[in-house]
Amino acid sequence: MGIIERIEDEYLDVSSSRATLRELLELLVGAILFVLVASGLAYYLVGETAARYVAAILAAIFVIMLVSQAYWAVTGREDYE
Questions:
Q1: What percentage of the chain has pLDDT greater than the value 90?
Q2: Where are the alpha helices (DSSP H) in the chain?
Q3: Which of 22, 27, 32, 45, CA to CA, is 20 to 30 A from 65?
């Protein structure tokens, strides 16, 4: 079994199970930390305006991801099997 097959099997294994509340909270905390660090770095490197744009774009992306994960946690993922 090659590395691509292993990655695919792991992805399908994770994708076919429901996310727990703990996993959703870990995603939320990780997303918040990532946005804070990325916007802080952008503020340091290029200024306040860029940092606000970085924070807004990343926050929007992470909100969509979290809503999606919460939806799949509630409904299940039988279509992956």
A1: 44
A2: 3-15, 21-46, 48-75
A3: 45
